[in-house]
Design a protein that fits this description.
The complex is a heterodimer of chains A (about 500) and B (about 280). Chain A is an all-alpha fold and about 500 residues long. Chain A has 2 domains: about 1-455, no CATH class; about 470-505. Chain A has 22 helices and 2 strands. Chain A has a two-stranded antiparallel sheet. In chain A, α2 (about 20-40) runs parallel beside α4 and α4 (about 60-85) packs across α5. Chain B has helices at about 1-15, 25-70, 90-110, 115-120, 130-150, 155-170, 175-195, 200-205, 210-230, 235-260, 270-285, and strands at about 75, 80. Chain B has a two-stranded antiparallel sheet. In chain B, a hairpin with a 2-residue loop joins β1 and β2 (about 80). In chain B, α5 (about 130-150) runs antiparallel to α6. The radius of gyration of chain B is 29 Å and the shape is flat. The interface between A and B is large, with 61 and 70 residues.
Chain lengths: ~500, ~280
């Protein structure tokens, strides 16, 4: 009954959204804007969703979600334009697409490559949506059984795993980034006793750091500085004729699509791990499974299909923990969380009780956004490629002004800007030293959750740590966290090396 | 037999940290690898500095928590116990930051980062790529826009000036022009900073309405003229100068009225230009 009710809800939402002219304009507008944003090198999906968040605070939650999901889907897909046409990925998620997309364009098959990315992105988003529809209610029901003990470890686990998987240089740099995020989350009055912490007498800090300016600063400012400082220059875009769905090629690569979609959803569901990792892992898996791995990097269709399916399937995956546990699965999902908070929607286990139709609405919007992306991709590709001609020194300053007015507009406080700039500069220097930024923002988001739940749990147990280890889910999360720490120690690595050597010897 | 030898070699290579390669292979790989090693040492040098900052910061967090946040005392009529204290979590975070700082420091020392840091203390490296100036240029534009102009000057004018300066710094793509424009803008900003610090702007605005807006507008015009003088005689740069001018005005004209009149956002400072916009807007109502 519940399932039938949900299916009915889904179709009703799709029908009412699709037959409302304002919603359709918003949907197509945001998807096209997202594609343009994604196509332009230096502008990311995260930044796009963040900037658009600031424009949506005056509209209804439903319209805001249409706009933001449209932007998210469009921007993740749009990254492939730069990869294929100029060999510069529009977003990090499309970096893997350039490996085979650009060689295809050099062979005169840019239109075909774009057709493949459009169709596989569409399929990827649909698969992600399917998993969101199936797993979100199950996880939400399970999460209702969680108590403060589990939520403390869950928040900590989110920061740890995000730091561990995004650290490019050293794993613990990701953790350090997460800890700095936790510190930023501590600033302001604590939520249980309202005691001011690290405010240094500045009254504007009493309410804590506002999430959206911090997010815009952390993702926007480093991007602006990096693109301008490193003098990113864009070459002449490869020409192409028409973009077609390329169903024949797609049907030949159905195994690659299924595999990549599953990888995308799985990686998306892991906190803080974004579309870029989903694309690379999908690409690697496709290459490994291929009968002709030597063709990868020379214009192999499977290469393009795998990464585009993977990164778009990641969207649905990233929304699963966001809606059910309040833990964002990817950096753009962090921005979505900020937007939901502005609209007084608190994601987490209580979401399905406080807003019973919300998850279904999100699924329906994702469904429509993937169609809008497919239609826009097929018909507007040629026009969108023209934006690649705009040099970064012209559009990056405009992005700066958007970041500034966006951060200011949310609370109409100049203090938000005073926060945004140092956070942005800190994020830039951290990034240049190999510290990932995603764990930092995850730390800012999950900090209050970890703090409150730790103290609530100890209050319940009257100061005893024993329940942390007697409750099964809490114990599993604790063991995983401990294992993540230990796996980075030289002792563990030596031990693992010894075991491997012994196994090889026996062989 | 051959397979066994190969497998043994592979295993040995895996277990050894440093594999001594034959000279020809070394020669082949030298250039790329050397650069990587150099970059890594440079990174570890930065890690060494960061680790010290992290340890110091962690100690500060713990000291702040222990001295400023009640662990067991009464606060606001509530008697605290250690496990509900607002200081519990900061204490844990501070402790973890210190541990991570020590781990990072250890790694930096092992990889030669500390040694490099000590070596570089005595000599100063000069940046030949011009990236430092580019970075300083970006930071100057952002900091001046947010901390100097937005809180005091008409928002439209501040945005226009920021766009003009930012685009002309980098769109001309000439390091010598960047240096000159940077100096020009820096001097202007310092003059305005002096004016604002002495609170002379308030006195001037009291005597004559929008005086500071007028002064900044004059600075904006001076910047336009100076950049035009710089590009004089170069056809391509002249075209770029025109684009810069258009791009400093058009986005401001779209963005600011959209926020002010459609999203109804009151802007930080609504000075002479926004007043003018109001007059135009309400005369058409």
């Amino acid at each position: 009954m519940l399932i039938l009710e949900r299916i009915w809800d889904f179709y009703v939402t799709v029908f009412f959204t699709a037959f409302n002219i304002e919603n359709i304009i918003l949907l197509f507008g945001s998807v096209i804007l997202g594609i343009i944003f994604g196509a332009m090198p230096g502008l990311t999906a995260t930044l796009g969703v963040g900037l658009l968040t600031t424009l949506t605070y005056g509209i209804s939650t439903n319209a805001a979600m249409i706009t933001l999901l449209g932007m998210y889907v469009g921007a993740v897909y749009g990254g492939s334009y730069g990869s294929i046409c100029v060999n510069i990925p529009g977003t990090a998620a499309a970096a893997a697409t350039a490996m085979d997309g650009y060689p295809l364009a050099c062979k005169g098959e840019a239109g075909r490559a774009l057709g493949l990315t459009t169709t596989s992105s569409f399929i990827g988003t649909m698969v992600g949506m399917f998993f969101l529809a199936v797993f979100a209610p199950i996880i939400a029901t399970l999460a209702l059984q969680f108590t403060s003990f589990e939520f403390f470890f869950l928040a900590f686990f989110g920061i740890m795993i995000s730091g561990g998987l995004t650290g490019q240089d050293l794993v613990y740099k990701g953790w350090i980034s997460g800890l700095i995020g936790l510190f930023l989350a501590l600033i302001g009055r604590d939520h249980l006793q309202f005691f001011p912490r690290f405010t240094f007498g500045i009254s504007e800090l009493d309410g804590g750091l506002e999430v959206v300016p911090v997010l815009i600063g952390a993702f926007g400012i480093p991007q602006i500085i990096q693109v301008i400082r490193d003098q990113l220059s864009i070459g002449e875009a490869k020409k192409f004729q028409r973009v077609l769905p390329e169903l024949k090629i797609i049907s030949k690569h159905i195994t690659t699509i299924v595999r990549s979609a599953l990888i995308g959803v799985g990686i998306g569901a892991v906190p803080g791990i974004g579309e870029d990792i989903a694309a690379w892992v999908s690409y690697g898996a496709a290459k490994k499974a291929s009968k002709h791995p030597e063709n990868f990097g020379k214009g192999e269709y499977a290469g393009v299909i795998s990464c585009e399916t993977g990164n778009n399937a990641c969207i649905g995956g990233a929304i699963i923990p966001l809606l059910t546990l309040g833990i964002p699965g990817s950096p753009p999902a962090v921005m979505l969380l900020g937007a939901l908070m502005i609209h007084n929607v608190t994601p987490g286990p209580m979401l399905s009780i406080e807003h019973p139709h919300f998850i279904t609405e999100m699924i329906a919007i994702l469904f429509l956004a993937s169609f809008a992306m497919f239609i826009s991709g097929i018909f507007l590709a040629k026009q969108v490629v023209k934006v690649l001609r705009i040099p970064p020194p012209i559009f990056m300053p405009v992005v700066l002004t958007l970041c500034v007015i966006g951060s200011y507009a949310l609370g109409t406080k100049v203090f938000n800007l005073y926060l945004m700039v140092p956070v942005g500069i800190l994020a830039y220097f951290m990034q240049s030293m190999g510290y990932p930024i995603a764990p930092l923002v995850i730390g800012v988001i999950l900090g209050p959750m970890a703090d409150e739940n730790l103290r609530r749990a100890l209050m319940v147990s009257q100061g005893s740590f024993l329940p942390f280890f007697t409750r099964p889910v809490a114990l599993i999360l604790f063991l995983v966290i401990v294992w993540m720490f230990i796996s980075q120690t030289p002792f563990y690595k030596r031990f693992l090396g010894g075991v491997k050597a012994r196994i090889f010897k026996q062989e | 037999m051959m397979d066994d030898v190969l497998r043994a070699c592979r295993m040995q290579a895996r277990s050894m940290k440093r594999v001594i390669l034959p000279t020809p292979i070394l020669k082949l790989r030298e250039s790329g690898n050397l650069r990587k090693v150099m970059d890594k040492v440079q990174l570890r040098k930065k890690d060494f500095i960061t680790s010290i900052i992290l340890i110091a910061f962690g100690i500060f967090m713990i000291l702040y928590t222990l001295t400023e946040i009640p662990m067991k005392d009464s606060w606001g009529g509530v008697m605290n116990v250690w496990f509900v204290s607002p200081g519990l979590f900061p204490l844990g975070v501070g402790f973890l930051i210190i541990i991570m700082g020590i781990v990072l420091c250890n790694r930096a020392i092992k990889d030669g980062g500390a040694k490099k840091f000590m070596e570089d203390l005595s000599r100063r490296e000069k940046d030949t790529s011009g990236k430092t100036l580019r970075l300083l240029g970006i930071l100057l534009v952002i900091v001046a826009y947010v901390y100097l102009y937005i809180p005091r000057i008409d928002y439209f004018l501040s945005t226009m000036l920021c766009l003009m300066v930012f685009i002309s710094f980098f769109y001309f793509d000439r390091p010598d022009f960047l240096k000159k424009l940077f100096t020009f803008y820096l001097v202007g900003c310092l003059l305005f900073l002096g004016l604002f610090l002495m609170k002379a702007d308030k006195q001037l605005n009291k005597s004559f309405l929008y005086t500071t807006d007028g002064l900044v507008f004059l600075f904006f015009l001076a910047f336009i003229v100076y950049s035009r003088v710089l590009v004089h005689g170069d056809g391509v740069l002249k075209k770029r100068w025109k684009t810069t001018l258009i791009m400093s005005i058009v986005p401001s004209l779209i963005l600011i009225p959209s926020f002010k009149y459609f999203l109804l956002v009151p802007l930080p400072v609504e000075g002479a230009f926004i007043e003018l916009m109001n007059i135009i807007r309400y005369s058409f109502r």
